Amino acid sequence: MSGVNAPWLAPIYLPGQEPLPEGYTEEDRANLAQVQMWQRYASGAMESCPVKCTLSGAAGFGLGAFFTLFSAALSADDPTRRTTAYLQAQAAGIPEPKLSTALQTKEFFKDTGKNMWRSGKGFGKVGALYSGIECCVEGYRAKNDIYNSLISGCFAGSILARSSGPKAMIGGGIAFAAFSGAIDLYFRKEPADDP
C-alpha cells in the first residue's frame, strides 16, 4: 500500500483544486474562492487592534449618549407638577418665569445634547482604552483567558485615574480589574446543561 492511499493520512490538494461542497459546479469555484477571500479579509479586520479599539469607542460613545438621553427623559418635569409649582409661586408673590414653553424646551434639548456629548465621550474613551489595551495584551501573551481582562482592567483603571495621584491609580486599577474580570467570568460561564 502506498503512502498516498493510506486512510490515516489527510488528503493533500493543490490550491484551487480542492473538492467543492455538495451542490456546486466547477463554474462556481471562482465565486466560492472570492467569497472565502472576503471572509478572510473581514475576519482579519475584526481581529485587528485598531478596528477593535474604534468599534469599542463608537459603541461606548453610543451607550453613554443613550444613558444620558434616558436619564434626561426620566428627569424631565411633569407638566402637572410645573403648573402646581407655578400656582404656588404666584400665591407666594414670586414673579412669573420669563421663558416661554418653546424656549424652555429649546434649553432642555440643548442641555441634554451637551450632556449626551460629554457622557458619550467619556464612555467612548473608556471603551477604546480598555479594548486597545486588552487587544495588545492578548497579542503579547498569545492567549485568550481571564488574565487578559484583569491585566487590561488594571492598566485601564490606572490610566483613567492618573490625574488623581498614585493611590488613586492603584485603587482605580484594582477596581477596574475586578469589574472587568467579573464581567469576563460571567461571559465565559458555561451554560447550564439542564433544561
Automatic annotation (TrEMBL):
User: Is Transmembrane helix among the key words of this record?
Assistant: yes
Q: Name one GO molecular function term.
A: mitochondrion targeting sequence binding
- State the compartments where it is located: Mitochondrion inner membrane
**Topological relation to the membrane, as annotated:** Multi-pass membrane protein
Taxonomic superkingdom: Eukaryota
Cellular component terms, GO, for this chain's entry? TIM22 mitochondrial import inner membrane insertion complex
One record GO biological process: protein insertion into mitochondrial inner membrane
Provide the alphabetized UniProt keywords. Membrane, Mitochondrion, Mitochondrion inner membrane, Protein transport, Translocation, Transmembrane, Transmembrane helix, Transport
Q: What Pfam families does the database record attribute to this sequence?
A: Tim17
Complex and partners: Component of the TIM22 complex.
Family according to the record = Belongs to the Tim17/Tim22/Tim23 family.
Name the job this protein performs: Essential core component of the TIM22 complex, a complex that mediates the import and insertion of multi-pass transmembrane proteins into the mitochondrial inner membrane. In the TIM22 complex, it constitutes the voltage-activated and signal-gated channel. Forms a twin-pore translocase that uses the membrane potential as external driving force in 2 voltage-dependent steps.
What protein name does the entry list?
Mitochondrial import inner membrane translocase subunit TIM22
